[in-house]
Amino acid sequence: MKHCFAVFLLALGLVFSVPSQGYSADRESVMEKVVRRGTLRVGFSSFVPWAMQDKEGKYIGFEIDVAERLAQDLGVRLQLVPTNWDGIIPALLSGKFDVIIGSMSITPQRLLSVNFSIPYDHAYVDLTLNREKSAAISKIEDLNAEGVTIAVRTGTTAAAAAAKLFPKATLRMFNDEAPAVEEVLSGRAHAFVSSAPLPAMETLKHGDILVQKFETGLAMQPVAFAVPKGDFDTLNVFDGWIRLVEEEGWLQDRRNYWFKSDAWQSRIN
């Protein structure tokens, strides 16, 4: 492992010594600013279990682990910047933080505004249904009908997937998952569509009200760090770091903990 990180630090030095195409030699990269400042500012939004607050109000989750390990390996402090999801890209571009590490999937629309690192995970879109309200729904195509209401979080991959798959249904948008889930629990919506594993977790928690009838996920997209366009030096550092921790097995270990176990549930309940 020491050899791997020695190679990483050497690569980091090379990044700062060779200007990238599209970035002038006298223009400081985001990564150079991070090292000089001694702080990595990470923009994110709450998505269970990617990022959420524990009983003491501290942010925990898969994304938080990733951000903490990245800052540690770079030898800088971590500053978490909670941001509303629908404004997170404009906030990045205005300089409010250095990078988005917030379960952001790569989409053609987002590629027009930011550059992405190589993927460090994948987002799966899933859904859960109100058991009583969806009694007549036997196949996923039944959700694509007038009179069906689907609760989603604004600006998410899940919202885009729901709009594409269920154009005849009514999409009810929320700024957070919690009120979207409550919409289904109360019977005001037939289904809640979100990134996995949240729909499955909510179904386990409210098994008397919610049900998952369909095993196949609705969509899968790669998740990556987002940075301002043109800063290829910073992308090079992030890409190299993701490859290292993936090969080390650390990323898979964190995925197993947050997405394939409930060991963390006691930290928030």
UniProtKB/TrEMBL annotation:
<dbReference type="GO" id="GO:0030313">
    <property type="term" value="C:cell envelope"/>
</dbReference>
<dbReference type="Pfam" id="PF00497">
    <property type="entry name" value="SBP_bac_3"/>
</dbReference>
<comment type="similarity">
    <text>Belongs to the bacterial solute-binding protein 3 family.</text>
</comment>
<dbReference type="GO" id="GO:0016020">
    <property type="term" value="C:membrane"/>
</dbReference>
<protein>
    <submittedName>
        <fullName>Transporter substrate-binding domain-containing protein</fullName>
    </submittedName>
</protein>
<dbReference type="InterPro" id="IPR018313">
    <property type="entry name" value="SBP_3_CS"/>
</dbReference>
<dbReference type="GO" id="GO:0015276">
    <property type="term" value="F:ligand-gated monoatomic ion channel activity"/>
</dbReference>
<dbReference type="InterPro" id="IPR001320">
    <property type="entry name" value="Iontro_rcpt_C"/>
</dbReference>
<feature type="domain" description="Ionotropic glutamate receptor C-terminal">
    <location>
        <begin position="39"/>
        <end position="261"/>
    </location>
</feature>
<dbReference type="InterPro" id="IPR001638">
    <property type="entry name" value="Solute-binding_3/MltF_N"/>
</dbReference>
<keyword id="KW-0732">Signal</keyword>
<feature type="signal peptide">
    <location>
        <begin position="1"/>
        <end position="24"/>
    </location>
</feature>
<feature type="domain" description="Solute-binding protein family 3/N-terminal">
    <location>
        <begin position="39"/>
        <end position="262"/>
    </location>
</feature>
